[in-house]
Amino acid sequence: MAKARPRSVVSALVVALPLLVVVAVVVRGALRPSDGSRAQAEAPVAGPLAGYAAPQADLPAERLHERVDGAEEYLRSQGCSRLLAWDLADPAATLEVLLFEDPEGAARVLSRDAGPSRTAGPGDEASADAQSVLFRRGKVYARLVADPDSPADPERLLAEARKVDRMILDDLGREM
Amino acid sequence: MRGRDGTPASGHERPAAGSRYAPRWVRIAYQAFFLLLFLASFLAMTDEGVRRLPVRWLFHLDPLTALGMMLSSWTLTPALLWALAIVGLTVVSGRSFCGWVCPVGTLHHVVSRATRRMRRGPPARINRWRPHFRLKYLLLVALAVAALAGTLLSGLLDPISLATRSLGSSLGAALATALPDGGFRPRLFRAAWATGAIFVGLLAVNRWIVRWWCRAICPLGALLGWAARVSVYRIHVDPELCTHCNLCAADCQGADEPFAKHRVSECHVCLNCVAACPEGAVSFRPFAPPALPAGGVDLGRRQVVGAGLAGAALLPLARASAGSASSPGPLAIRPPGARREEEFLARCVRCGACVHACPTSALQPAMGEAGPEGLYTPILVPRRGWCEPSCTLCGYVCPTGAIRPLLPEEKGWTRPEAEGIRIGTAFFDLGRCLPWGPAIPCIVCQEVCPTSPKAIWLEPVEVPARDGRLVRLQRPHMDPARCVGCGLCEAKCPVSDLAAVRVTRVGESRARESSLTLPLGRTLS
Amino acid sequence: MSGAHPDRRRVLKRILAAGAVLGGAGLAAGVAVLSRGRWREPRVAALPKARGVEPDPRFPAVAVARGGPEASVRAAVAAVGGIARFVRPGETVLVKPNMGWDRTPAQGANTDPRVVAEVVRLCLEEARAARVVVADVPVHDAERSRERSGIGEAARGAGAEVLVPPGPGFVLARLGGVVLDTWEVFAPMMGADRLINVPVVKDHALTRLTCGLKNGYGLLGGTRARLHQQINQSIVDIATAFRPTLTVVDATRVMMRNGPTGGRLDDVAPVGAVAAGTDVVALDAWGATLLGADPERIPHVSLAESRGLGRIREGTAPREEIHAGP
Q1: Picking from A144-158, B235-249, B321-335, C98-112, which range would have the lowest pLDDT averaged per residue?
Q2: Helices (H), A32-153
Q3: Is the pLDDT assigned to residue A147 strictly greater than 90?
Q4: pLDDT value at C120 more than 50
Q5: Residue B193 has pLDDT above 60, yes or no
Q6: Which of C258, C193, C245, C259 is nearest to C216 (CA)?
Q7: In whole angstroms, what is the distance from residue B141 CA to residue B144 CA?
Q8: Would you place residue A4 in the very low, low, confident or very high pLDDT band (cuts 50, 70, 90)?
Q9: How does strand B456-464 pair with strand C161-163?
Q10: Model pLDDT, residue A44
Q11: By CA distance, what is C180's nearest residue in A?
Q12: How far is B478 from chain A (nearest CA, A)?
């Protein structure tokens, strides 16, 4: 029986090792809190395009169907996290700004809306015609579509899109 | 009969169980650490705590939670891959999770140890294996089949869930109530007495049968016991050295009967038998031959099929009940980030971590509001508390993603103009509302409404009082397009029993069929 | 101690068994982590492409016939080009009557069963359609409404299948409207080549008139009571999305008051007319005049006109009615 002792002490030490590792990891984590799991909302942050007018709609991913009923699943699958919309009076148009998790998602949605052709215009890539300006800046995709009932002024539309693009650029700059 | 050091042990007094056997002390250290970790994780389910401790880690180590979630939702939260570590541990060394890690097992171990002298009789009789210990396997079968049908009830009996739920929504609150002004906010939970009585009652059974919970009920123990049948390391009794003194059974946790036909699926690997053997005949070793005669647990085929059928019948019966998943009742208000009801019920392990973590006690265990299968799932009860606009804690303590962890801006209640998550809609009960009914001025609900602009707006009116004088009042109205269902108005309404403004589930944004209003309309292009 | 020494066979067996359990668990967990889970967002289906016919200047947009129900149906349909103009041989036709209420034919709440049966016979016998489905989503109990309206028996007798929910269920479909973009649509709607709208003219408490435009409401599922918040826009959204090939309006008995449910025989006027045409707005305008209402002042009719669904004047203009005989 006595001969069994030394062996059992060795095995005890071996078995105790994982516990020591786990204790060390837990204690280390407790002393250095992570930022990853922050369960508390920040103080109110200004939304994108804060300098612009108040949006008519500002929807999280879960409520996209309230504006783009039917397209919400596709948008979410591309990483759309938020949608803001404005009804503009001058130019008479609707502006929708969609925030994505990454530029690739935004680019895919632009390609779906506009097809492969690109025109000179605001953002990293754009597709403009007489009635609309669609463009992507980084992970933000914006659609500026003239109201069908009013005569569209392509120059005015493009100028507004450039203004929106500058504000998006400012927002993205602040984020980085 | 001889003690460990060779000194004679007198009468029924048992030897100090292997105090020199080192691995046993390591096991106690493991048990102490994991019990402490469980309690610390429990206490750390706060904004600050979740950043410092892996408060869900014990859930994520739990193979029963992982199996249940896989069967019911056909997916797995990546963190639950940790459960493979316990599966690995089990195929190497048997149910060592039960004996070394499980905090509930440890609690039962402590109570059975404390009541040791109350159980009289020869060790082999006290810790004999009883046929009804097979019940846990049948429960596991029934719960697994129910999970496959789409409802995750395993958490009702999963030890980690059971302990979190019992402490969080009963015993912890009861302790705070009992302490003389210990600085704790009194917390009230629905059916706290029953929740706590079950847990304490299970602990009390240890007085008669050691670790009866672990031996007879625990479905996690059953799952691990099934895996332990292939374990590499196991208890081995050398027949040439064994004197049949049965001392190995004296402190046996699992009733696996090392002295007769060792049942590896029942053994908790507490190693008390190794420590207790005066002859050194018991060892824990790899690749030992099966015990002679081989001891297994025979589950009758009829019993297994019966358990499976019972599990299969659970869901249709529950779903045939009004107020279950297909049409949850009006008070089944789910926390923000909760998935659609069917998926929610397939992921929620009923652990009550969210109920415990909720800073305002707004989250309460459902009793009948969410149908029979919704028992102990979280619902918001605004009379108990409101959903704090800036808080997303419930999603950060939920172990299975039944409540998604929301990004701060995703909930959206602190942003002006934001249209964030909605969990319900509040409606006024005009007869009870002070300005509407008895013509008494009050604007509390509008004052506390946290959305911006406020969902509650005031209409100035002049109405005649009883004596004919005109009273100037502001009558509150609800704008359902702005209401997020947080429940602040109901929580703060001065009509203190049944509030004059109450939240119901309609309008919650997680399911389009709950919508109250049509889309506001859009520009046709 | 000899038995305690592991032999190679046992070592191998144990390692394999332990590895199999761990590997199986790992494989299952890995697959589950990568899986998207049991629940998907419902797929949104597109409605069938245009089921209308080209305008033909030889035929009027609306024709009205008076007489017995069957004869009137035949005469009115013949006057707008005959059934063969609308249904080709071998096609599947969905006939959408108003079969929404647990009411008898005499009460005038549902389309007259003789009108429905005649439309079915026209499709099957004259146009040689392969299959005619009569479908509606009743407000009252579905099977009771189907049978008590008389439509179930009459249409089956004429050779049609008569479907009410639960039946083949609902499909989430893209309607593309202003307020109704996606909604649950009764599944028979999705598979039909042609849609023949067979409404009854009735009074309606909320919209004044229910006739051809509003009849499409009966192909929706979901909590359609929600639509009453914006009923006029919703009706026009539905009518725009569904675009029937042909509309046959039953005005044999017209419920003048207490619509849409009615109940009293006193509320029902024996008008004895059937109108057919491709212009739903015109047909509704004609129906409104039967109730003594000004179609211009019925919001959903004027809204439908402004959305380009048809012309009110075509319905209100004086016309020669066909005498169809008994």
Answers
A1: A144-158
A2: 65-68, 72-77, 103-114
A3: no
A4: yes
A5: yes
A6: C245
A7: 5
A8: very low
A9: unpaired
A10: 43
A11: A69
A12: 19
3-state secondary structure of C62: strand
Which residues contact residue A28 at a Cβ distance below 8 angstroms, ignoring those fewer than 6 apart? none
Q: C108's torsion region: left (phi>0), alpha (psi -120 to 50) or beta? A: left
Count of residues making up chain B = 525
Distance CA B325, CA C297 (A): 45
**pLDDT value, residue B521:** 44
> What would the pLDDT profile of B432-477 be if each residue is shown by its tens digit?
999 999 999 999 999 999 988 899 999 999 998 888 888 899 999 9
Instruction: Determine the average pLDDT of the residues in B31-37.
Output: 96
DSSP one-letter code for C60: -
Q: Cα torsion at B361, B363, B369, B373 (round to 10°)?
A: -130
A-contacting chains (≥3 CB pairs under 8 Å) = B, C
Q: Provide, rounded to the nearest whole percent, the portion of chain C with pLDDT above 90.
A: 56
What contacts B70, CB < 8 A, 6 or more positions away?
B76, C28, C29, C32
DSSP bridge partners of B378: B365
pLDDT at B201 over 80: yes
Q: Is A148 on the interface with C (CB under 8 A)?
A: no
Residue type, C240: T
Question: Domain-by-domain residue ranges, chain B?
Answer: 23-286, 341-411, 425-514
Which residues in chain C have Cβ-Cβ distances shorter than 8 Å to A73?
41, 44
Please check whether residue C265 is in contact with residue C292, taking contact to mean a CB–CB distance below 8 angstroms.
no
Q: What is the pLDDT of residue B184?
A: 57
Q: Does C27 touch chain B (CB under 8 A)?
A: no
The C-alpha of A75 sits at a distance from chain B's nearest C-alpha, in angstroms, of: 16
Q: Do residues B346 and B150 touch, judged by C-beta distance below 8 A? A: yes
Give the three-state DSSP class for B51. Answer: helix
User: Mean pLDDT, to the nearest integer, of C90-107?
Assistant: 93
Does the domain spanning B341-411 belong to CATH 3.50.40?
no
* B436-445 confidence digits (pLDDT tens): 999 999 999 9
Q: Is the pLDDT of residue A101 over 90?
A: no
The answer to whether residue B115 scores a pLDDT higher than 60 is yes
What pLDDT was estimated at residue C6? 66
Which of B7, B51, B269 has the highest number of chain A CBs within 10 A, making it the mutation to test binding with A? B51
Could you tell me the CA-to-CA distances from B329 to A134, B116, B348 in Å, in that order? 44, 48, 18
Q: At a CB cut-off of 8 Å and minimum separation 6, what does C299 contact?
A: C207, C232
Q: What's A120-160 look like in SS3?
A: CCCCCEEEECCCEEEEEECCEEEEEEECCCCCCCHHHHHHH
Using an 8 Å Cβ cutoff, are B75 and C36 in contact?
yes
Among all residues of chain A, which has the CA nearest to that of B398? Answer: A39
Please check the confidence at residue B11 and state whether its pLDDT lies above 70.
Answer: no
pLDDT tens figures, B311-325: 998 888 888 887 777
- Contacts with C25 from chain B: Cβ below 8 Å: 63, 84, 87, 227
Residue B89: strand pairing partners: none
Q: How far apart are CA A88 and CA B79, in angstroms?
A: 46
Strand B378-380 versus strand C170-174 pairing type: unpaired
Q: What is the ipTM, given to two decimal places? A: 0.85
- Asked whether the beta carbons of residue B238 and residue C1 sit closer than 8 angstroms, the reply is yes
Q: Answer for the pair C205, C259: CB distance below 8 angstroms, yes or no.
A: yes
Determine the 3-state secondary structure of A2 from DSSP: coil
Which stretches within B213-326 are classed as H helix?
219-228, 272-276, 301-319
Beta bridge pairs of residue B176: none
b/e map of A124-150 (b: 16 or more CB within 10 Å)? ebbbbeeebbbbbbbbbbbbbbbbeee
Angle between helices B103-114 and B159-166 (to 10 degrees): 70
Residue type, B33: F
Fill in the amino acid letter for B246.
N
* Tokens, residue B438: 């008895």
